[in-house]
Amino acid sequence: MELRHLRYFQALAETLNFTRAAERLHIAQPPLSRQIQQLEEELGVALLDRGRPLRLTEAGRFFHEHSRTLLEQLGKVCDNTRRIGSGEKAWLGIGFAPSTLYGVLPDLIRRLRSDAGLELGLSEMTTLQQVDSLKAGRIDVGFGRIHINDPAIQQEVLTLDPLVAALPAGHPLLPGPVSLTDLAREPFVLYPGNPRPSYADHVLSLFAAYGLQIEVAQWTNELQTAIGLVAAGIGITLVPASVQVLHRIDIGYASLQEAQATSPIIISRRVGDASPALTHCLALIEELAEGHIG
């Protein structure tokens, strides 16, 4: 399927007349008919009821609506690409681990989106995926939670988030505070399972530093899934304290006795990248971080 098939079909769906559609497209009618037939053959369904008057089939109406949306999105992408290429706009790609969305990141995104001269791209990904995307040029800055040793990547700690235990409502260890020794006796839900290393390895290393091992009852790839499984009684988990803004009646949070049990929010970027968009982003991060600390 080629892009022209979508454009030809849109013209026909809007006019419901081969002659008028061909005139709009500045092509002859026979080639238009052949292109529509090729599209139907590729999809394996009839898009048109070729009676009098010409009508769209049920499948045709569905394809018309969704292909029109695709073409509109493509038009916006092409327009922004031209504007970025001509210097009218800048593009900034941000990668983020889900648990970093409870600090300065939402404020940063709001500030950046209000800039008419900036096109913002957001991608949910682990720190390891962020590093690969930074090196490939798919993003410009990443927010994650683990340190990665890579000479092409510069990392800095934005803040240290205290860790808290997430436990099912009514758990004997609530309301806390609790010790890591107490928690090590409980089954754990750990995330993300893949790719590794990840935040899960940070949690495992934290217990190992105290000579403790934990039993992993369930691995999952998402923070929200882990919290849901905690509520279901599968196990407990450790989450950054900022996640406590997620108020749920079926789980409780307990602070840790070990004050040094923290999880960093780490900013990753390419070494030597001094683009104006990234420089502006980093200045905003510093300003917002000071506001949060204050």
Question: How would you summarize the topology of this molecule?
Answer:
Elements: H1 3-15, H2 18-25, H3 29-43, E1 48-49, E2 55-56, H4 58-85, E3 90-96, H5 105-113, E4 118-124, H6 127-136, E5 141-144, E6 153-168, H7 180-183, E7 187-190, H8 199-209, E8 215-219, H9 223-231, E9 237-240, E10 251-255, E11 262-270, H10 276-293
Parallel strand pairs: 3-4, 3-5, 7-8
Antiparallel strand pairs: 1-2, 5-11, 6-9, 6-10, 6-11
Helix pairs in contact: 1-2, 1-3, 1-4, 5-10
Please provide a written account of the structure:
The protein starts with a helix and ends with a helix. Strands 3, 4, 5, 6, 9, 10 and 11 form a seven-stranded mixed beta sheet that branches. Strands 1-2 form a two-stranded antiparallel sheet. 43% of the residues lie in helices and 22% in strands. The longest helix is centred in the first third of the chain and has 28 residues, at 58-85. The chain is elongated and about 80 Å long. Strand 7, helix 8 (199-209) and strand 8 (215-219) form a beta-alpha-beta unit. The relative contact order is 0.14. Helix 1 (3-15) crosses helix 2. It contains ten helices and eleven strands. It has 294 residues and is of the alpha/beta class. It comes from Metapseudomonas resinovorans. Pfam families: HTH_1, LysR_substrate. This is LysR family transcriptional regulator.
